[in-house]
Write a structure and sequence with these properties.
four-stranded antiparallel beta sheet, 5 helices, alpha+beta, globular
Length: 304
């Protein structure tokens, strides 16, 4: 019996060691399969480009023919047309980056932040405007997002005007607008309230340990409205656990920690748990996190 336990223990240790070695390898090795898939797709795109030009970012019917993995609501890797001659492929993991990516300009695989398509950026009077067509995200509802850098000075640096607009009778009309702070005007679309509609996250800030915060806007397509979630921009590195309808974070600090949150109406509620990760082999972090989730589920069940 003891011999069997020892063998099992050594086996687990060996697996952990191998995993640690694996993640420390150059990305060209541990991401080899992704790079191989990407290279096959690049060959197809380049062949298509010679006679047809580059496909649009939302032309999924064409892109699927090139070997992209179809996940129904997104393609892997993500394809983004930058301009008439350049494009990028991105393997999205999480939503803060950096990611494994390739651009037709550099023609090499790197780990970096994605580039903005040229069409998103319009420079006039020293202002910066980022426009994003959301037809591929919101089912051709002619919705557009705009981020415009406000007059930059010592007090207003990194302040943007955010607009959510819809094309009506040939003109984009404003549905929602807000003035926000953003050190990196990066936009993500992730469902944060389990209604199967992707909500809008716009980067807010980043600290010295690269903990990112975001502004969150819940999207209501039926009523054509947005709701800004109060307090969400105070959560560092947020991630949504849709199976539990909870937000979890993981903060890099002198002692890494996690908290759990829930969205109620237009505000974030702290569920009252603070879980530390000492990052040791015997860390109880995962167990404490699972226990906290179970306690929240039990309390919600009892309160119904």
């Amino acid at each position: 019996m003891r011999k069997g336990i020892k063998i099992l223990g050594f086996g687990i240790i060996a697996l952990v060691v191998l995993y640690l070695i694996w993640i420390k390898l150059p990305f060209t090795i541990n991401r080899h399969s992704d790079i191989e898939l990407g290279n096959k797709i690049i060959d197809q795109i380049e062949s298509y480009k010679k006679t047809n030009g580059l496909p649009e970012s939302n032309d999924w019917e064409t892109l699927k023919k090139f070997g992209f993995i179809d996940h129904l609501d997104f393609l892997e890797p993500e394809y983004q047309k930058l301009n008439d001659n350049e494009y990028q492929l991105i393997f999205i993991e999480g939503f803060e980056g950096p990611y494994l990516m390739w651009t037709s300009k550099d023609k090499k695989w790197i780990i970096d932040q994605p580039l903005f398509p040229d069409a998103w950026i319009d420079k006039k009077d020293n202002s910066k405007v980022i426009k994003l067509n959301c037809d591929s995200i919101y089912s051709n509802l002619h919705i557009q997002i705009e981020l415009k850098l406000l007059n930059s000075d010592a007090e207003n640096e990194n302040k943007y005007e955010f607009k959510f607009t819809k094309k009506i009778n040939g003109q984009f009309e404003n549905i929602y607008s807000d003035s926000i702070y953003s050190t990196v005007p990066k936009i993500n679309f992730i469902d944060f309230n389990n209604d199967n509609i992707k909500d809008i996250l716009i980067q807010n800030s980043s600290d010295v340990r690269s903990n990112w915060t975001y502004n969150l806007y819940l999207v209501d397509l039926k009523n054509e409205s947005l709701t800004k979630v109060k307090g969400f921009n105070e959560i560092k590195n947020p991630r949504f656990l849709n199976e539990y309808n909870l937000i979890v974070n993981y903060v890099n600090s002198g002692r890494n920690w996690t908290s759990l949150y829930k969205i109620e109406r237009d505000s974030v509620v702290d569920m009252g748990f603070l879980i530390y990760d000492d990052q040791t082999e015997n860390s109880s972090y995962q167990k404490e996190l699972s226990d906290a989730i179970e306690k929240i589920k039990k309390n919600e069940k009892n309160n119904r």
